[in-house]
Structure formats: structure tokens, C-alpha cells
Amino acid sequence: MFLVLMGTVVIAGIVGYLSEKSGFTQNGYLSSIIICVGGAFLFFFMRLMFGWGFGSPGMNAIVSSVGALIIVPFHWRK
After folding, report:
1. 62: Cβ contacts below 8 Å, ≥ 6 apart
2. Helix/strand/coil (H/E/C) assignment for every residue in the chain
3. Which carries the bigger pLDDT value, residue 78 or residue 69?
4. 11 closest CA partner among 57, 69, 67
């Protein structure tokens, strides 16, 4: 379980970096990575507690990271 958690963090960090590098977001590298890791943590623990998921832990990390990148910046923008 610990290795799955560390893999989730690594995948979320890569997704955050690549989304900023490709121009998908304009948040800054560090904030995009933090948003992705936070979303991946949240979804990891939801899967652990309730069993919700998209199959593999890697797919869960990617989907939750992209979802957090879409939801969080638009929520705080006025």
C-alpha cells in the first residue's frame, strides 16, 4: 500500500508538470504540482475507504490529478 501511495504522488507530480509545460494550465509549476498531488491524495484515500476507482491505481492518479487541475483553479477564479 505504501508503494502505491508513493507511485500516486510521483504520477500526480508528473501530470502537474506536464500540464504546465504543455500550456494546459497557467498556474505555475509548483502550484500545479501541489494541486495534482492534493487531488491524487484525496482520491487515493477515497478509494481506500470506499472502494471507488477507475481500475488501476495509476489510472486513478492520472484522472484525479487532471480533475483537480480543472476544478480547483476555476473554483477560486472570479
Report:
1. 11, 15
2. CHHHHHHHHHHHHHHHHHHHHHCCCCCCHHHHHHHHHHHHHHHHHHHHHHCCCCCCHHHHHHHHHHHHHHHHHHHHCC
3. 69
4. 57
Residue 51 dihedral angles phi and psi, to the nearest 5°: 85, 10
CB 65 within 8 A of CB 36: yes
| 32 neighbors 19 (Cβ within 8 angstroms) | yes
Contact predicate 65/12, CB 8 Å:
yes
Q: So what's the pLDDT on residue 7?
A: 95
70 vs 27, 31, 42, CA distance in Å? 11, 13, 15
The 10s digit of each residue's pLDDT in 44-62 is 999 999 998 888 999 999 9
Asked if residue 29 lies in contact with residue 17, where contact means CB atoms within 8 angstroms, the answer is yes
